[in-house]
Design brief:
Blueprint (H helix, E strand, L loop, with lengths): L1 H24 L2 H14 L7 H20 L3 H27 L18 H21 L7 H19 L1 H8 L15
Helix pairs in contact: 1-3, 1-5, 1-6, 2-3, 3-4, 4-5
C-alpha cells in the first residue's frame, strides 16, 4: 500500500515540476517574464537574476526526470531535491512578502496573482507530499500494475490541480464590487 502512495506522490510532484518548466519555457517571452519576476522579488543581485532563473528551471527539470524514473535511487533523490527546492522557494516567497513585494512569481509561467499566503501553503503541502513519498518508498517491494496506474494517474491529476490553483481561486473568488454601483437601485 505504501508503495502506491509513493507512486502517487512521485506523479503529483513530477506533474507540478513539469508544468512549472513548461510554463517558463513555453516561449522566449515566458522565460523573460520569469526572469523579471525574480528581479521584482529582489532576492538575488540584479546581475544574477538570469543565472538564478536558469538554475531554477534546470533544477526543476532534474526533479521531474528523477521522479519519473521507476527506480528507488532516482526517486529518493527526486523527493529530496523537490523538498529542498520547495523549501527554498518558500523562503524566497516569504522574504519577498516581508519586504512588501507581492509581485507574481510566475511559478508556473503565466500567473498574474500576487504572492501570498496561499503560495506558501501550497509549497508547504508539496514539501509534505515529498516527505510522504520519500517515507512511503522506503519499504520497497513488488508493485501490481493496476493499482500503480491508478496511483500515478491520481497523483498526476492532483498535480495538475495544484498548478492551476491560482486560476481556480480566481474563478471562485467573488467579483470585485463596482464602487459606482448603487445599492438596490436607489438613486
Amino acid at each position: 500500500m505504501m508503495l502506491y502512495l509513493a507512486i502517487g506522490c512521485r506523479s503529483l510532484l513530477a506533474a507540478v515540476f513539469a508544468v512549472a518548466v513548461a510554463g517558463k519555457l513555453r516561449n522566449r517571452q515566458a522565460f523573460v517574464e520569469f526572469v523579471r519576476s525574480i528581479q521584482r522579488m529582489a532576492v538575488v543581485a540584479p546581475s544574477l537574476t538570469r543565472l538564478a532563473a536558469i538554475i531554477s528551471v534546470g533544477a526543476e527539470i532534474v526533479v521531474a526526470l528523477l521522479l519519473v524514473i521507476p527506480a528507488p535511487g532516482p526517486g529518493t533523490a527526486g523527493f529530496l531535491l523537490a523538498a529542498g527546492l520547495l523549501v527554498g522557494f518558500t523562503v524566497v516567497i516569504v522574504g519577498s512578502m516581508r519586504h512588501g513585494n507581492t509581485a507574481p512569481c510566475r511559478c508556473f509561467g503565466r500567473s498574474e496573482i500576487p504572492l501570498g499566503r496561499r503560495h506558501v501553503l501550497r509549497n508547504a503541502l508539496l514539501v509534505a507530499v515529498a516527505a510522504a513519498g520519500l517515507l512511503a518508498s522506503l519499504p520497497g517491494g513488488a508493485v501490481d500494475a493496476g493499482p500503480a496506474v491508478v496511483a500515478a494517474v491520481t497523483g498526476g491529476a492532483l498535480g495538475a490541480l495544484v498548478t492551476a490553483l491560482d486560476d481556480i481561486v480566481y474563478l471562485l473568488a467573488p467579483a470585485p464590487r463596482d464602487s459606482g454601483q448603487r445599492r438596490n437601485g436607489a438613486r
